[in-house]
Specification:
Order of helices and strands: HHHHHHHHEHEEHEEH
Radius of gyration: 38 Å
Oligomer: single chain
Structural class: alpha+beta
């Protein structure tokens, strides 16, 4: 759903738009009544037309818009006929111009043109009939009714169209907010999928290694096989727990635990591992979880793809570097799962680099700005 500030802004725009258009139409309508109404009957008819215009604007986004709008259209059309033909008031076209514009703009495209021309024909027909039947000269009648009615109608159309444009703008803001919310949900799903891959992909590969080792030792070292299977059992249990925590957004990766886990895995695979603390500082707690994810993904990659004999993990107060000697070739490395981690690291203000050369593969994540914050 759109964020609360966006909802407040859109609501304020709706109120502002309604207030401006409602106030403007009220002011113009009141001015027309005060200038042109010469008796109580004209005042009542013009007031009725103005009320119909205001109600149609007020119900622009209402649930019963069409019932209200069609009623207002009938009222304003009646006011036009009575006002012009019976009460000699050219200003009676104001109400139907506003209501008619509101109705036309809310119609589907295929109905707009015929309905619009029908309303124009109604106004023109009523005014023409009045001009032809008016006493006195034709010129005076044309000046009074044609010019007056058209001018008033144009004013009504302008205000109703302004309301439509601003309401459309607010609706577009709402749709943009909905699209933003959908994008946020999609990003969260991608993040969740990445975390789930980190947990279960790593565990499954370790389980595969330990089961393979147990198969080799099943006839020669039953005690070691039992220990390996116990570790598999424990690891699967931990993974189930971590998956549950992830589902409840409670998972927090511990860098120290990941270092110990990586050491154990490398040693179990026959890889010599050395962990160094280059400057004696522990990483900032705000980035330790991300560094742990980098270490976990890199450990999994080494176990899966490299033929390493030695791994060196160097930890500093602002980053981590993992070097292994099992790289083949000199071509740029494929990032795989590290690509998603690179995005996450950069989003948090750090850098993630991978290099291959001289038989070595280097993965390094750093948050140089964090030291300044300490």
């Amino acid at each position: 759903m759109p964020s609360e500030p966006a909802e407040v802004t859109q609501g304020q725009l709706r109120v502002l738009n309604l207030g401006i258009v409602f106030g403007s139409i009220s002011a113009v309508g009141a001015l027309l009544i005060s200038i042109n109404a010469q008796n109580l009957a004209q005042t009542l008819v013009l007031g009725l037309a103005l009320a119909a215009a205001l109600v149609s604007i007020r119900e622009w986004t209402g649930r019963v818009f069409w019932a209200v709008a069609l009623t207002c259209l009938a009222v304003s059309s009646t006011a036009l006929v009575v006002g012009v033909l019976v009460l000699d008031s050219a200003s009676a076209s104001f109400g139907v111009s506003v209501v008619g514009t509101v109705v036309v703009l809310r119609l589907p495209d295929r109905y707009r043109r015929p309905v619009a021309w029908s309303l124009v024909a109604l106004v023109v027909g009523v005014v023409t009939l009045k001009v032809l039947t008016a006493p006195g000269g034709l010129g005076d009648a044309l000046k009074e009714y044609v010019v007056g009615a058209v001018s008033v109608a144009v004013v009504g159309v302008v205000f109703a169209t302004l309301n439509h444009l601003v309401a459309g703008f607010v609706s577009e803001l709402e749709r943009a907010g909905e699209r933003e919310a959908e994008l946020a949900v999609a990003r969260e799903r991608v993040r969740f999928a990445g975390d789930l891959h980190d947990i279960q992909g790593h565990t499954l590969h370790v389980v595969k290694l330990k089961v393979a080792l147990a198969r080799k030792l099943v006839h020669s070292d039953a005690d070691q096989v039992e220990r390996e299977l116990d570790e598999v059992y424990s690891l699967v249990g931990e993974t189930i727990a971590e998956t549950k925590e992830l589902a409840h957004a409670q998972r927090r990766l511990n860098l120290s635990a990941e270092l110990e886990n990586a050491r154990n895995l490398f040693e179990a695979a026959g890889i010599t591992v050395r962990v160094e603390h280059a400057d004696g500082d522990e990483p900032d707690s705000r980035v330790a979880e991300t560094l742990g994810q980098v270490l976990r993904e890199t450990t999994t990659n080494i176990l899966r793809h490299a033929r390493a004999e030695h791994v060196r993990v160097t930890l500093t107060g602002t980053g981590i570097t993992i070097v292994n000697d099992g790289a083949d070739g000199e071509e740029p490395p494929a990032l795989g799962g590290l690509a998603a981690l690179r995005v996450r690291v950069e989003r948090d203000g750090g850098t993630l680099t991978v290099e291959r050369g001289d038989g070595r593969f280097v993965t390094a994540a750093a948050f140089p700005g964090r030291r300044d914050d300490r």
